[in-house]
Design brief:
single chain; mainly beta; Surface presentation of antigens (SPOA); 2 domains; four-stranded antiparallel β-sheet; 6 strands; 25% strand
Length: 139
């Protein structure tokens, strides 16, 4: 059992809080404590595989779409230089031509790839998958 004190948060023309359902309490009388019974919540045990998917079967997420970002390079410039940029200007990046690009999913590097041109589009040829241990360290 827990003993609590309750007061009403509304004001009735004064700054004094009025007692909640305690008619014999007044400005000089304390609010009487109420006794409330508290019981522990009981939850059933979850059995393996009850989430709707068979154990050790990850195929239920096969249709989840992810955005992959390919980074061809980076650079750092000042805000002043950024504000002065005009169409046609060139910004040099930190990677050389032919150097592998990094592939990111949700901001985490997952692979390195070669950038290709396929018809009028860019494409990527995976060269190396980032080891799982290294991907975990990125988090």
């Amino acid at each position: 059992m827990i003993t609590t004190r309750h007061t009403d948060a509304s004001y009735s023309g004064s700054t004094r809080k009025a007692p909640l359902k305690n008619s014999d309490a007044g400005p000089d009388k304390p609010v009487k404590p109420r006794v409330i019974a508290v019981e522990a919540a009981v939850f059933p045990d979850l059995a393996p595989g009850t989430a709707g998917a068979p154990d050790n079967d990850i195929r239920f997420v096969d249709d989840v779409q992810l955005v992959i970002v390919a980074e061809v390079g980076r650079t750092t410039i000042t805000l002043g230089r950024l504000m002065e940029l005009k169409a046609g200007q060139i910004i040099a990046l930190d990677k050389t031509a032919g150097e592998p690009s990094e592939l990111f999913v949700n901001g985490h590097a997952i692979a390195k790839a070669e950038v290709l041109v396929l018809d009028d589009n860019f494409g990527l040829r995976i060269q190396e998958i980032v080891p799982a241990a290294e991907r975990i360290r990125q988090r």
